[in-house]
Design brief:
Helix content: 25-40%
Radius of gyration: 17 Å
Mean pLDDT: 97
Order of helices and strands: EEEHEHEHEHHHHHEHEHH
CATH superfamily: Alpha/Beta hydrolase fold, catalytic domain
Low-confidence stretches: none
Distance between the termini: 39 Å
CATH class: Alpha Beta
Structural class: alpha/beta
Number of domains: 1
Oligomer: single chain
CATH topology: Rossmann fold
């Protein structure tokens, strides 16, 4: 996938685009760059979709300044879609990117046709906090494979460990690791935006419960950063939601089972319906 740049709100954003079909835009995790998605996950999606990934401002290959709040990031995503000529998309977000994707969907509902949330949590306060091991490992300037196994997989599962090694090898076969954010100054910008999302001053939690946009949630059963249990109190209240829970999996189910995850996403895009059409 070739790295391109495009001007959005006076900033040069880096993106990669491949495939044909319905457009799918992916919002990345905390510290994620264009290079840190699993290539097998992306290539499987791009066989049947117009798939787009990008770097947030001041992250990875992008210029500009990282926005101060979640609305700022949502506005960047909306601007990117406008610049690319996209008026209706499926929007997916992993981890921190799930915050961004939800903000885009509720701030710009005319843009988002379907919403996919991977290893993330709902807006507002949630009863189960992140596990301390997450911060212990996530804030290390350069993460090792062993760190990633704790952050993104299930270290108690032999299968999960085996898939973590395979995913790591695919990702690190071609990566510019120095572009991954590695300083507390950079980390705190994510944390500031995340704190505002949890404060929910824009009422996104209520919008999640009232939206008729089809929502697919993919989640590991042991996510050290975003507990899957935080969704349980909301599931019966969602108007048009589906949830898939992977057993013996952590924060990156799409890296543990990339082809299966891509098939879930593809089936959701092709076959889920907006209930307002009935």
């Amino acid at each position: 996938m070739k790295t391109e740049t495009i001007e959005v709100n006076g900033m040069l954003l880096a993106y990669r685009r491949t495939g044909e079909g319905q457009p799918l835009l992916l919002c990345n995790r905390f510290r994620g760059t264009l290079d840190t998605w699993d290539p097998l996950f992306l290539s499987t999606l791009s066989k049947e979709l117009d798939m787009i990934i990008f770097d947030y401002p001041e992250v990875g290959y992008s210029g500009g300044m990282f926005p101060e709040d979640i609305i700022g990031l949502a506005t960047v995503v909306n601007g990117l879609c406008t610049a690319l000529g996209l008026s209706s998309i499926t929007l997916a977000g992993w981890s921190f990117g799930g915050y961004v994707a939800q903000a885009v969907a509720f701030k710009f509902p005319e843009l988002v046709h379907k919403l996919i949330l991977i290893g993330t949590n709902p807006p507002g306060e949630n009863p189960i906090p992140l596990e301390p091991i997450f911060l212990e490992k996530a804030l290390i300037p350069v993460n090792s494979l062993e760190d990633e196994q704790i952050l993104f997989f299930e270290p108690e599962s032999e299968f999960s460990i085996a898939t973590s090694i395979a995913s790591h090898e695919r990702i690190y076969a071609s990566i510019e690791a120095e572009r991954i954010p590695s300083t507390m100054e950079a980390f705190n910008k994510y944390f500031s935006v995340g704190a505002g999302f949890k404060e929910d001053k824009y009422g996104f939690r209520e919008k999640l419960l009232t939206t008729t946009i089809p929502v697919l949630i993919l989640h590991g059963d042991h996510d050290v950063s975003f507990a899957v249990e935080n969704w349980f109190q909301l599931l019966r209240k969602l108007k048009n939601g589906q949830m898939i829970i992977y057993t013996k999996a952590g924060h990156a189910p799409q890296h543990q089972l990339p082809e299966l995850s891509a098939s879930y996403i593809l089936n959701f895009i092709l076959h889920s319906v907006n209930i307002e059409s009935y």
